[in-house]
Amino acid sequence: MIKESVFKSFDSTNELESVLADKIAGQLQDAVDSRGKASLIVSGGSTPLKLFQLLSKKAIDWSEVYITLADERWVESDEKDSNERLVRENLLQNRAANAKFRGLKNMFATPEQGCAMTSESLANFPRPFDVVVLGMGTDGHTCSWFPCSKELDNALTSKELCAAVNPTTAPHPRITLTQDAILASRQIYLHLVGEAKLTVYKKALLNENVKEMPIRAVLAQRKAPVDVFYSA
Ligand SMILES: O=C1O[C@H](COP(=O)(O)O)[C@@H](O)[C@H](O)[C@H]1O
């Protein structure tokens, strides 16, 4: 039986993004106030664009906030498919311009070769992570835990921070934070927009096979609190 996540449904994406941006900003500032620094892990793809823009304007102590990605496509950071590019253009702007950002992509040719260096570059991030914002694909993947990939098992069982993934149903080799890394977090948000995502989310609650629905690795666990923010 899956533990119920907190599920919040909003009438509009605007309302969702506004509430979520406020929550994240509040939790990051609380972390800075109580521990001197904060960590924020964000996802890429199309869903979080507006959320990033709102968040970038929040008046918090961004210079003490460490930001990285839950996953990255192994492409140059100025290419259109780069999650880093999305973060640089939309989140690391305005007041958030002086946050401490580390991307996951490095100069190695493949994520397999680059993984160790990426893990090292995240070594000074405050752990447990303070806030993690995840997305979900319509195949049930979150981070780059793709059900189609032969590396899924490693991403879900490895005790390392990062893992390489080569999806067969999505473009680009990937680097992803592992399940172990993601679940060592004070707060996880799952940001879902659109009825297709709601259908997949409901399917994931019923399908006990995490290999078919990797999002279950986040939903069916008791280590980290998960709040689902949904709008059609
Ligand atoms: O490829 C990815 O997909 C998921 C979902 O993306 P969306 O475009 O449907 O929002 C995303 O969470 C992940 O970070 C990204 O690399």
TrEMBL record:
Statement: the UniProt record of this protein carries the keyword Cytoplasm: no
Function: Hydrolysis of 6-phosphogluconolactone to 6-phosphogluconate.
Family named by the database record: Belongs to the glucosamine/galactosamine-6-phosphate isomerase family. 6-phosphogluconolactonase subfamily.
Enzyme class: hydrolase
Pathway in which the depicted protein is active: Carbohydrate degradation; pentose phosphate pathway; D-ribulose 5-phosphate from D-glucose 6-phosphate (oxidative stage): step 2/3
EC number: 3.1.1.31
Listed Pfam families: Glucosamine_iso
Start and end residues of each Glucosamine/galactosamine-6-phosphate isomerase domain: 13-221
Keyword Chloroplast: no
CDD domains, alphabetized: 6PGL
Gene Ontology biological process terms, A to Z: carbohydrate metabolic process; pentose-phosphate shunt
Protein name: 6-phosphogluconolactonase
Species, as recorded: Shewanella maritima
Catalytic reaction(s) noted: 6-phospho-D-glucono-1,5-lactone + H2O = 6-phospho-D-gluconate + H(+)
Alphabetical list of PANTHER family matching this protein: 6-PHOSPHOGLUCONOLACTONASE (PTHR11054:SF0)
Keywords of the record: Hydrolase
GO molecular function: 6-phosphogluconolactonase activity
